[in-house]
């Protein structure tokens, strides 16, 4: 996957002056031995053990020189909370804390570390400095347990670093009768995301400019033909689709400016087809599959949500409408619904923006809904078929109309059930979805688009949102737990 940060995670040991520093150093050595055994990539131990503020500055200098962009503060003993949290404050990147468990009764008489207590003081001082730090559910760990937490934190940090170095390119406004994904952009700036809004004409000029680069267009077209094989139903549009891909990639390379990463949110109808004479969906799917999400319908927050899902999973994601109910006769007798009820099933659909890697079967088609309004000949270019059976996490980060960030996360599965319909589409099973839909998606006025990771990454996204300062995080509630405003007499 391109367009994602490489997390270089530094582990910084700390030691309170009334505890032996050798205890922290020995426990750091044991931790790093487990890291190497697990082959956890890009994890480095700081040669400075922080005991005082001068050590803090030395450790910060080490982090800067070595390109460390995420950090774990490791309490080998109680730890000096002032210098430790000062490091986190001045480091400014994603940070977590872990603390060493006592190894056994042999060390309790004189070599006890008291790190359980140290985490309390660390947390208190983090609050004084108004910092956001990831503290796992069980921060006191053995070396083997620490490796599992470090592996999760690398994913969490990737989401945070990526978002804070991201630019969203928007092309075109939303049509008047389809305002569903409009939202204030101020919260994106508050997160550190840059927004560059452009006209549809800008993209047309960019597309026409690429016509001169015929050799590059031919190379992309050949790659498309190789990927599609006998699924290349309309070969007459392959060069136009290749020209659009080249146009978007060229824009990506030359317009990121001060940002390291970028995503797109492009207008795709109703004006697109009469001007370009094909659909952009397949091109969108290819870029998204490589790590550059291209959201449909100028959905800025949808593009950001897709990007976060890709950083969390290190896999392609997609953007789908939470679209239609599933008739009983679609569901095979005895089908495994993965813990969901029939009422919790729905179909996730979009015209054809899900990459081929995430489809069970697919081919290039024309967009049936848009063809009701215009010639089918100019709506060719969707990638349609059944979404592959897999675990999934549906996710959205959104600004509400009051410029407050809201979000939802729900884990489930795409089922191996034929949707019996058109588009890029799959039957989604999210346990508890029916109530979640009514009291979160509808009740909190979320738009119809959701981002979907093809992996269960709810934990990663939840913690990343916390580090980013998003407080309104919604998840499905178990039976018996009422959503705010839910009528207890209606259940």
Characterization of the model:
- There is one protein chain.
- This protein is of the alpha/beta class and 491 residues long.
- 36% of the residues lie in helices and 21% in strands.
- The chain is built from 15 helices and 18 strands.
- It has helices spanning 21-37, 53-65, 81-91, 115-128, 143-164, 186-191, 200-209, 214-228, 238-255, 272-276, 281-290, 300-313, 368-371, 433-442, 458-467; strands at 9-14, 43-45, 70-75, 95-100, 140-141, 166-171, 194-198, 261-266, 294-295, 317-324, 345-350, 363-366, 380-386, 390-399, 405-414, 424-429, 449-453, 472-474.
- The strands form 3 sheets. A 6-stranded antiparallel beta barrel has the order 10-11-16-15-14-17, surrounded by 4 helices. The protein has a 5-stranded parallel sheet with strand order 2-1-3-4-5, with helices on both faces.
- Helix 7 crosses helix 9 (238-255), helix 8 (214-228) packs across helix 9 (238-255) and helix 9 crosses helix 11 (281-290).
